[in-house]
Design a protein that fits this description.
The chain has about 160 residues and is of the alpha+beta class. The chain is built from four helices and eight strands, in the order αβααβαββββββ. A hairpin with a 6-residue loop joins β7 and β8. The radius of gyration is 21 Å and the shape is globular.
Length: about 160
C-alpha cells in the first residue's frame, strides 16, 4: 500500500477517534443535582443561598436591598421541582461554547424582595410577592484541574 494512503488512513482514524466533547443534560450531571441543595451549593462555589430568605448567604454575595428571594427553603424546593418537571433538555457542556448557561421558566412560588439587611449581609425585612418566572443559572465551578458544572444560582422575578 502506498505511503500516502497509509498516512491518509491514519489521519482519518485519528479524526474519528477524537470525538468532540458533548454536552449533557444539566439535570443529569451529578454535580448539578448535588449543588441544588442550598447547604451544599455554597461549598461547590454557588450563590443560591443569596436568594433564599433565612439562609446564610455566601461571604462575597450577601443579600442586598432589592434582591429577589425565595420566601423560604420550601419555595426553593418547589422552584427546583418545577425545573425538574420541565419538558425539554437544558444542556451543559463544552460544545455550547460557554461556561455559563441560564434558563428562565414561568414558575409561580412565594417570593420576597429584600428591603433591609443587617451588618452580616442577611435580609431582615422583605416585601412578599409571587414570582412570575424563575431564572436558573448553571455554570462551571471548581479548580482548573477539576472543573464541574453546578447550579450557580437561581432567583425569582415578579
Amino acid at each position: 500500500m502506498p505511503t500516502h494512503k497509509i498516512a491518509g488512513l491514519l489521519i482519518a482514524g485519528l479524526l474519528l477517534s477524537a470525538a468532540p466533547a458533548r454536552s449533557a443534560p444539566c439535570l443529569e450531571i451529578q454535580s448539578v443535582r448535588l449543588s441544588a441543595d442550598p447547604e451544599r451549593n455554597m461549598a461547590e462555589g454557588g450563590r443560591l443561598a443569596r436568594h433564599i430568605l433565612g439562609a446564610v448567604p455566601p461571604p462575597k454575595a450577601g443579600q442586598s436591598v432589592g434582591t429577589p428571594m425565595f420566601a423560604d427553603r420550601r419555595a426553593w424546593d418547589a422552584a427546583w421541582q418545577a425545573l425538574i418537571g420541565h419538558p425539554g433538555q437544558l444542556l451543559c457542556g463544552d460544545e455550547i461554547g460557554s461556561t455559563q448557561y441560564g434558563k428562565t421558566l414561568s414558575v409561580q412560588v412565594p417570593s420576597m424582595r429584600c428591603e433591609e439587611t443587617d451588618g452580616a449581609g442577611r435580609c431582615v425585612r422583605a416585601r412578599p410577592f409571587t414570582s412570575e418566572t424563575v431564572t436558573y443559572v448553571f455554570e462551571v465551578s471548581g479548580p482548573p484541574e477539576a472543573p464541574a458544572w453546578i447550579l450557580g444560582t437561581a432567583y425569582p422575578k415578579p
